[in-house]
Write a structure and sequence with these properties.
Blueprint lengths: L10 H12 L6 E6 L18 H11 L3 E3 L7 H6 L7 H4 L2 H5 L6 H8 L12 E6 L9 E7 H12 L15 H13 L3 E3 L3 H6 L6 E7 L3 H13 L6
Antiparallel strand pairs: 1-3, 1-4, 2-3, 4-6, 5-6
Helix pairs in contact: 1-10, 7-10
Length: about 240
């Protein structure tokens, strides 16, 4: 396959460093929204069955699986839309889907939210690729970490380590792993932090005390370096 990122590092070393410095129980996950078959490494397993994107992330995170999924493997319509695999369904577009789930006062409130959810252009993605970071053998676009709030604190400090400033995150309590952590991060080129959502917590094992964070793969070398510094700093809570 063609390489699509110039600044690379050893993904196993990066994963080991992040796990050690942050005390992660599970692996960071590398994700790619492939725009063509050439983006899928030869011999990579094609997932069997239908699952939600957040569950696929969990398979890589907890079970160490490496695979790719095409549109027919994606069970969640909202998630596959956010990732660019299929068009937005009419019930999502008009606000009825989440309104019927009791998430909003009105279909109008739901539509206002859906209209602002970050999403990759429909049809631009032919497959989504997943791997625990240490097993990654494709060029990822997003690195996703699910962990406790304490870990997110250190990731936030690492995000600001070089240039400082403030953390600005976007989320709406729905479509957390797909839209917030993946699509938003991919489209904006910035790290994004999210609280998780009912669907991802129900179907992918995100625990009550955990949050979700995604950052562009281009940031990986800087994040790895900064995480090791901020976690070892004299003012850091051990």
């Amino acid at each position: 396959m063609d390489e699509t990122i110039t600044k690379r590092m050893d993904y196993k070393d990066a994963s080991d460093a992040l796990k050690k410095a942050l005390g992660l129980n599970y692996s960071p996950v590398a994700i790619r929204m492939a725009t063509g078959r050439e983006d899928i490494p030869e011999g990579m397993e094609h997932l069997e069955g239908t699952f939600r994107h957040c569950r696929m992330v969990d398979m890589a995170r907890r079970e160490g699986k490496v695979f790719y999924a095409t549109v027919e493997n994606h069970e969640c319509m909202g998630g596959s839309w956010a990732l660019g695999l299929r068009p937005l369904t009419e019930t999502l577009k008009n606000g009825h889907f989440y309104f019927k789930l009791g998430k909003f006062e009105s279909t109008a409130a739901c539509k206002r939210t859906i209209d602002r959810i970050p999403h990759v252009e429909s049809g631009a993605t032919v497959a989504t690729l997943y791997a625990p970071l240490e097993k990654t053998h494709f060029s990822p676009q997003v690195i996703l970490i699910i962990a406790q709030a304490r870990v997110m604190l250190k990731l936030a400090q690492a995000t600001l380590f070089s240039l400082g400033g403030r953390i600005t995150s976007e989320f709406s309590g729905i479509q957390s792993v797909c839209a917030d952590a993946c699509a938003q991060t991919y489209l904006s080129g910035r790290a994004n932090y999210s609280l998780g959502c009912d669907g991802s917590r129900k179907f992918s094992g995100i625990e009550d005390g955990e949050m979700v964070m995604g950052f562009p793969a281009e940031m990986l070398p800087a994040i790895v370096e900064a995480v090791q510094i901020v976690t070892a700093a004299p003012g850091s809570k051990k």
